[in-house]
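[09:14] KT: can someone run the structure on this one? pasting the chain below
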Amino acid sequence: MRRRQRIAAWRAGLPERIAGAARRWGFAPGETLVEGEASCILSARGPDGSALVLKCALPGQGLGAEAAALAALAGRGVARLVAADPAEGLLLLERAVPGTPLLVLARQDDEAALRIAARFVAALPAPVPPGGLFAEAAGWGRALATARGRLPQALLDRASGLLAELSASTPERLLLHGDLHPANILRHGEGWIAVDPKGLIGERAAEAACLLRHPADPAVLVRAPRRIALLAEAARLDRQRLVAWGYVAAAIAAAWAVQDGADPSPWLVAAEATAPLLSPRGSG
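[09:31] RB: done, C-alpha cells below
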C-alpha cells in the first residue's frame, strides 16, 4: 500500500482508535493542538485531572523507537510516558505546562539557550536497552551518498571520512534523544523537559551536534566557533570530537534539505564556519 493510502486508511480509523484508547487508559481527549499530514497531538486529561497529551502518528519504526526511548528514559529529563500502543500509533504522555519551547529564548539569547540544552546533552543519555529498534548515528552517512551531484563533492567526501573515523573511535555507545533542538525542549514548571525523542544510538557529541545546526539562521550558524566552545565546556565534551560531529551534522542536514527540495544554504554556512576548526587528522 502506498504511503498516501496508508495515511488515508489510518486517518479514517483514528477516531475509533482514540475512543478505544480513552476507554482502556481512562483519559478524556480534548482539542487538537498540532495537526500534521500523518500525525496529530491532542490535549487530554487523566482520571486525576492531570494534564496529558495524546500523540497520534502513523505506526512504524519511528513511533516504536520513540515509545521505547521514552520507556527507557522513564521521565528522566523527558516527558513521562503514561501509556503506549505503537501498533495503533498512539502514545499518551505527560504534558509540559506551560510548554513554552526553548526556541523562544534561543531567538533572544542563543548562548543562554545553548547552556540549558547542554544540561540535556550531559545528563539525558542512558544505557541502550535490549530489544529496541533504534537507529545508529553512524547510519546518518546514508544521506550523504544520496546527495552526490547536488552538494559540493569535497563537503560530502570530508563528512563521510569524518563520520567513518568518528564511528570507529567512539568512546561510548548510549541511547540519545536523537533530535535535541530548541523546539523539542519545553518549559515545564520551573524547569525544562525534552519531547519527541527519536531514539538514537551514539555518543554525546553526536547529540550536541544537533544543537549546532539549530536554529536554521545563518547569522547564528556562522558563530560555530563560539557555540562549539560553549557546548564543549557546558556539556563536558571533547572539543575536537564535537567539532567533527558538528561538521558532519551540518553536511547531513544539507543533504536532508536537498532530499526534501529545501534550501541547504544555512547548513552549508554552518559547515563552512566549522571547517577551519577541524584538526588535520579529522576527529582528533
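[09:33] KT: thanks! The first strand starts at residue 28 and ends at 35.
[09:34] RB: yep, looked fine to me
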